[in-house]
Amino acid sequence: MTRHGPMNEFCWMDLKTRDPAGTAAFFSSVLGWDFAVDEEDWRRAVKISAGGDRIGGVSDLAQPVYPPGTPPHIAFYLAVDDVDHRTALAVTNGAQVVVPPFDAGDQGRIATLIDPVGAALSLWRPRGFAGWPVSAEAEGTPHHAVLACEDPERAREFYTRTTGTPLGRAAFRKAAPAPAGTDAGTAAGSAPRWELALAVHDPDAVADRARAHGPDLVTLTGEGHHRVVRLRSPEGLTFQVQGGGEHVPVPGR
Q1: 131-151 pLDDT, tens per residue?
Q2: What domains, with CATH codes, occur in the chain?
Q3: Alpha-carbon gap, residue 14 to 110, rounded angstroms
Q4: SUPFAM superfamilies in the record, alphabetically (predicted)?
Q5: C-alpha angle with apex 31: 246 to 244, nearest 5 degrees?
Q6: 123: phi > 0 → left, psi -120 to 50 → alpha, else beta; which?
Q7: pTM to 2 decimal places
């Protein structure tokens, strides 16, 4: 297999959870995702599909490879041309290396970093691993990635210098202040993180399905075409949801 889309775009995600069954039940109910063991993978890894297109995987944090106390989170993979070279450039531009470059079997080469604004990501040079398709129209497919932080221009410049070109299908935004009297969550004061925006046909219906699992699992911001629905799983895994599909431009680039 070859990469579906261009380099310098996010191409895959891995939901790292302490409750694989509960995570699958929530996102299947709310987004219609399918969670199934990949019978062609010797690891028998669980893969996530939207409308027949594979978009991510699931990892169980109870496995011994993860340090005790690792919180549930979503790992995102950025496709690059040369992991070792881009990792070196990332360090020069202010990133910290969490996991140095290594070969992930015959699937590709990977390194995990913390960027200068504090967001984690993995650089990925695909070999046999295809990544998600970039023009899928199925419900719940990836549309673009969003990084909200205190200094979005610094973040944007870091990725441009590291990859050699502006990131595709990515938006950089100023982090909003946390509402008074509430948990900061992904707002100012917490560690920045990449978040995936998903394309759906009816954001309100998605929000209603999420609220059936708990009234605090949905946050609404903006109006009209700028309206964003943020979903949070019971474990705290978050996604943005927007209507309109592929023709909607990436905001805040």
Answers
A1: 887 666 788 999 999 999 999
A2: 10-126 (3.10.180.10), 141-247 (3.10.180.10)
A3: 14
A4: Glyoxalase/Bleomycin resistance protein/Dihydroxybiphenyl dioxygenase (SSF54593)
A5: 25
A6: beta
A7: 0.90
